[in-house]
Amino acid sequence: MATGFKVGAGKIEIKLSAGLPMAGYAARSGMATGNHDPLFARMVIFDCNMKQHALVVLDLLKVDRHLVALIRKEINSVTGILPNSITVAATHTHSGPSGIWDGYDNYNPALVTSMVATIANLAREVWAKRVPAKIGIKTGEVHNLGRNRNDPVGSYDPEVGVIRIDSLDGRALALIVNYACHPTVLGESNLLFSRDFPGYALDMIEKESPGGAPVAVFINGAAGDISTRYTRKEQTCEEAKRFGELLAEKVLSISKELASSSDWEIDSYNMELLLPVRRISRGSATKMLADAYRKLSDFEYAQADQGRIREAKTTVQAAEIVLNRLANEIYQDLPKNLPAEIQMIYLTGISTRAVLIVLPGEISSGISQQIKEIIHQVGGLEKKHIMILGYGNGYIGYLLSPDSYQELKYDSIMSKFDSEATELVVKAIRTLGLKGCEKNAGK
């Protein structure tokens, strides 16, 4: 095994001002009126035997490939870490800024330049703070927070993964939380920038962790069909705080129980894919909209609960968005394929192996379980040590289980793909899993 394992961690506020457009809801009206709580860039750098990896997580709705490339270039320039060994992800808060994705009408190059410079400064600071470290990994479950947003009794993933990183003398450095759930407690009427429930969770973790105040990092998982739609009582900051503290309490409990060690290695693997884009005719989109309105009418007539009504309304919104796109000349000549990057990060200790699978979009919980089973089979990793990171290294939208594409849901209507794309991603993960597991099995 390797010696000289070091880790650095830090965070820095992403400065935003009132008057900027917000991202997350098509029905939101108006610009941001200010900040409810600060948005951050958080970073953890792993350094071991000439191999480094940087994990960067931003309080944004998403990161596109253009923004990822800019951030990777700047981090490489100040640390020397190879671009393919840098992960850039978003927490997926629906109360963050818009204007940061290339090709959009409201693209704000000044905001992007400022954000990238801020992240470069953070990288410089975190690189300088690297110290010999030890890691502990453990998972548990949290309930009554996220749930299947399309079916209140449908399957979902309650697992929460915790990676605790300490200095050799026991000082807390970083605590990484992996949990799958849309940060959508705050709704479309909210005009204040906020991290939503993950922000409250991280604040509590940093305040109450034993061994000092670590840099707490939230990495969202396969949250494509998981949200608080059927568990929240209201869409307020108080409710976001309640959910955040529920998650934090579980994470702190898990953290206290895990054992850590100092002998670790890190390795990462990347693969670029071209995913075939689904074609939808105007006739099909018109029918979807009519069916969506019928579904909403049926729920309203039956006086269904607010979760069901919300589900039906978002389905209508999705069909309207697709029809509007088809009417817009910009969308008449869509590319046949969209690029997607798959990344796998292996952490290998004396008695524990863990892998973080980074995927660029909204991955359904069913796909997540399939992926975990594949990696378990090809590499013998315990499923509890296989973590999915969604919204990382780009954004391709929704990636669903094959049978889900036939359903009349927001996710299936909005997806740019069909089951063929899902099959390509799963195949790529199997290939990378074989490569990574074979190389890291004997360390």
Folded structure, characterized:
This protein is of the alpha/beta class. 35% of the residues lie in helices and 27% in strands. The protein is built from nine helices and 20 strands. β4 and β5 form a beta hairpin. The mean pLDDT is 93.
Can I get a quick summary?
This protein has 9 helices and 20 strands.
Helix content: 25-40%
Mean of residue pLDDT? 93
Q: Which structural class is indicated by helix and strand composition?
A: alpha/beta
* Main beta sheet: 8 strands, mixed
Backbone shape: globular
Radius of gyration, CA atoms, in whole angstroms: 21 Å
N-to-C SSE string, H for helix and E for strand: EEEEEHEEHEEEEEHEEHEHHEEEHEEHH
- Counting DSSP H or I runs of 4 or more residues, the number of helices is 9
Question: Unreliable stretches, pLDDT < 50, 5 or more residues?
Answer: none
Strand portion? 25-35%
**Strand order, largest beta sheet:** 6-5-4-1-8-10-11-13
| Termini gap | 6 Å
Number of strands: 20
List the helices and strands and how they pair.
Layout: E1 6-14, E2 22-23, E3 34-35, E4 39-48, E5 51-58, H1 65-79, E6 86-90, E7 96-97, H2 109-128, E8 131-141, E9 147-148, E10 159-167, E11 172-179, E12 192-193, H3 196-208, E13 215-220, E14 226-227, H4 237-257, E15 264-276, H5 282-301, H6 306-327, E16 337-349, E17 353-358, E18 362-363, H7 365-379, E19 386-389, E20 398-399, H8 410-414, H9 419-440
Parallel strand pairs: 3-12, 5-6, 11-13, 17-19, 18-20
Antiparallel strand pairs: 1-4, 1-8, 2-7, 4-5, 8-10, 9-14, 10-11, 15-16, 16-17
Helix pairs in contact: 1-2, 3-4, 5-6, 7-9
